[in-house]
Amino acid sequence: MMRPLVTGALSSATLTLVTALALRADDAAVGVAAVAATAVLLGWYARLGSDDTVSTLDVANPAAGMTLAAVGRRPWGTLLPLVAAHLVGAVAAGFAALGLESRLANPLISDADGLVVAAVGAAVVGLVGAWATLAVDGGGHDALAAVPVVVAGALPLALVGTFSPAVVLGLATAELLPWDVAGTAAAVAFVAAGVGAWIAGLLLPAENA
Per the domain annotation, does 90 fall within a domain? Predict the structure, then answer.
């Protein structure tokens, strides 16, 4: 059980650092592409441990853990420890990014101060993320893991980390997002990841039987 926790913590730490740096890139599109590429790479690595009964995609993203637990691809009992590990990694990386702040360029955009925008955006990203998780887990291309990142990047750019509840809280630790906005986005995205799995079960009952 320790290895998935360590992998989850390292995955969220990596994603948080990459996202924090991406928010300071010269070009927003390049920044979003870097985050998306990192998410795909980590998702590919996480999927290597999956088999016909259990998926290991949750070590790449805690929202994926919620989706997979909701469809029976992960035990519910593993969800809380893994989410905690992701949060530890993301917050640690957030502190590291904060320590580097004086050596980095100013963030591109810091206009994500609306709770309604954060909640609605996170709901959409969470639903899209659930679809992407189930698609990849079902044998789809690993590049599908980039879709929720791109959708999040279409929101106010500071919310680009919304694809992962851990990353968005790591960005708040790095003082790139207000805590109330980050907390709202994280909570809504996490719940939406479960709701998205439920919706998929209604639409595709034969595949989830």
Answer: yes
Are 59 and 4 a contacting pair, CB within 8 Å? yes
d(CA 103, CA 126): 33
Kindly report, residue by residue over 32-43, the tens digit of the pLDDT.
999 999 999 999
Q: Say how many domains are in the chain.
A: 1
Q: Is residue 209 assigned to a domain?
A: no
* Residue (of 207, 60, 203) closest to 145 by Cα position: 60
Residue 208: predicted pLDDT: 41
DSSP calls for 80-145:
HHHHHHHHHHHHHHHHHHHHTGGGSPPPS------HHHHHHHHHHHHHHHHHHHHHHHTT--GGGG
> Is residue 208 domain-resident?
no
The CA distance from 37 to 125, in Å, is: 17
76 belongs to a structural domain: yes
Buried b (16+ CB within 10 A) or exposed e, 150-176: bbbbebbbbbbbbbbbbbbbbbbbbeb
Domain of 64, in residue numbers: 2-203
Distance CA 169, CA 153 (A): 16
Which tokens belong to 176?
Answer: 């790139």
Q: What CATH number is attached to the domain comprising 38?
A: 1.20.1080.10
DSSP letter for 26, please.
S
What average pLDDT does the segment 131-145 reach?
94
97 Cα distance to chain centroid: 18
